[in-house]
Design goal:
about 110 residues; mainly alpha; about 0% strand
């Protein structure tokens, strides 16, 4: 079996997309590209098990720097944040409940 150059090229392309997204501070795109890199690297791990010693050495020499670039890009992506506290906001334009005529009750968070 030969070294899977097409798969390595796909990893390189995905790492490049992640690096560009990080440079543009497009965090969602960067996370998506990093997920693609992770999936592609996992596919390469499966192929690695089937390779001979010489091919493994070659694959490792090429994939190692790609993994390092991936890790450097991932380190620059901020962790996603979620709003944990929020007060209900009353909308003055919201209509009253047609059945009771009372103003609507804000949802409980």
């Amino acid at each position: 079996m030969d070294v899977p150059l097409e798969q390595l090229a796909a990893v390189s392309e995905a790492v490049g997309r992640a690096e560009e997204a990080v440079a543009d501070e497009a965090w969602t795109s960067a996370r998506t590209a990093l997920d693609d890199v992770d999936r592609l690297l996992e596919d390469l791990r499966e192929v690695y098990r089937e390779l001979g010693a010489k091919e493994r050495t070659t694959l490792g020499a090429i994939a190692g720097p790609l993994r390092a670039r991936r890790d450097a890009a991932a380190a620059r992506v901020p962790k996603p944040r979620a709003v944990t506290d929020g007060a209900p906001v009353e909308d003055p334009e919201q209509e009253a409940d047609p059945e009771t005529g009372a103003p609507p009750v804000p949802p409980v968070s």
